[in-house]
Write a structure and sequence with these properties.
alpha+beta; GMP Synthetase, Chain A, domain 3; 16% strand; globular
């Protein structure tokens, strides 16, 4: 395994750990927040790093973005990045907010 692949594998493991902590914190604080995910192209790291915060409804997403919860989610994301040593100029460019879409044709099957 090349040194850069090893380096990024370590960063990925730590990022998953710190984002999981952020997720668990947010689930207890932010109404309607369900989970988060991240995507990254390590050829364009850290510019390509994007964390998406998922909500159960558009109403809860809109309410969170209109209130103090948005700043809290940005702060949790920034803290997760910093804990891994990732520095970004504008955290808001690395965060998205979306609504979980129910699976089609899967009535009654929860998570």
């Amino acid at each position: 395994m090349a040194a850069s692949k090893r380096k990024y594998a370590g960063i990925e493991r730590e990022l998953i750990r710190t984002l999981t902590d952020a997720c668990e914190t947010a689930k207890s604080e932010i109404v309607g927040f369900q989970w988060l995910t991240h995507d990254v192209d390590y050829q364009r790291f850290p510019e390509s790093l994007l964390v998406t915060w998922m909500f159960d409804s558009e109403a809860n997403r809109a309410r969170a973005l209109a209130g103090a919860e948005k700043a809290r989610m940005l702060a949790l994301t920034l803290a997760a990045f910093e804990a891994v040593g990732i520095s970004v100029a504008r955290i808001n460019e690395h965060v998205a907010f979306s609504v979980e879409q129910p699976a089609r044709g899967k009535r009654g099957q929860g998570h």
